[in-house]
Design brief:
alpha/beta, 7 strands, binds nicotinamide-adenine-dinucleotide
């Protein structure tokens, strides 16, 4: 049997790049989507996946464009003859206090962070056979907590577990499982952005308040995504798993 194939959106940076490498180490071939014109170099992921011994196809795509999402799922199938895993990781984070939020800002956020997940899974489902798995990246912002000045992000991320629960039921007859991952604070380009997120100093400070004493690594989230995709989690579907170093279970001080 040929090696399985994973489609990962937002694969040129952060958690997406780490997921690509983690899959490669398990012998999974990678099709990575990246946003053209974005700040991240897809060659970085390509090189690391190939160094880990797996084939890799990196393709420009935009999760707000259904045609482009269909195209990458179709390209994955054309190139490798199968599609086993779909990882909806691409995401946008912007700061927008409610009184200043435009309809455009709200709609863009929902379009990328929630509808983009649906588009990724919809296109992948057209090429996946019997079996396989889908994993979406939610956030403790919305998935657990509220986050001031980020209500559009939290609303989108809160929608992700509901989408996954429903698809878990809908796709179960095909043997396709669907789960969400809810990361806490993970050091990536997104969280290092001091304008829209915590930035390096904010992360360092926040890490001290996390029970495990630090923020998370992208590779740690990637390991969970791989676990939820593989046969080790064959009876887990429709779940949302928090990975946050204990942040959301600590006693408030
Ligand atoms: P990141 O900014 O490195 O990754 C996000 C990726 O999505 C980028 O490569 C970006 O180019 C891509 N992207 C953005 N808009 C896109 C679009 N329209 N089409 C295709 N790709 C697009 O940051 P990250 O932290 O690795 O983010 C990965 C996911 O994890 C996101 O969904 C994010 O919201 C989520 N998340 C991150 C954290 C954290 O602390 N870093 C916490 C919780 C959830």
């Amino acid at each position: 049997m040929s090696q399985p194939v994973a489609l990962i959106t937002g694969a040129a940076s952060g958690i997406g790049a780490a997921v690509a490498v983690a899959f490669a180490r398990k012998g999974v071939r990678v099709v990575g989507g990246y946003l053209a014109g974005g700040p991240h170099d897809p060659a970085y992921t390509q090189r690391r996946v190939e160094e880990a011994g797996a084939e890799c196809l990196m393709m420009p795509m935009d999760v707000t464009d259904s045609t482009s999402v269909d195209a990458i799922a179709g390209a994955a199938f054309d190139r490798f003859g199968r599609l086993d895993y779909a990882i909806a990781n691409a995401g946008l984070l912007r700061k927008a206090p409610l009184m200043e939020m435009s309809d455009e800002q709200w709609n863009e956020m929902l379009d990328v962070d929630l509808t983009g997940v649906m588009r990724t899974f919809r296109s992948a489902s057209r090429y996946m056979g019997e079996g396989g798995a889908m994993v979406a990246i939610s956030s403790i912002a919305g998935g657990v907590y509220g986050w001031q000045d980020h209500s559009h992000y939290a609303a989108a991320k809160a929608g992700v577990p509901g989408l996954c629960r429903s698809l878990a039921v809908e796709l179960a007859a095909r043997g396709i499982r669907c789960n969400a991952v809810i990361p806490g604070l993970i050091e990536t380009p997104q969280s290092l952005d001091s304008k829209n997120s915590l930035g390096a100093d904010g992360l360092a400070k926040a890490g001290k308040g996390i029970p495990l004493g630090r923020v998370g690594r992208a590779s740690e989230v990637a390991d969970l995504v791989c676990y939820l995709s593989g046969s080790e989690s064959s009876y887990i579907t429709g779940q949302s798993i928090i990975i946050d170093g204990g942040l959301t279970v600590r006693w408030p001080e």
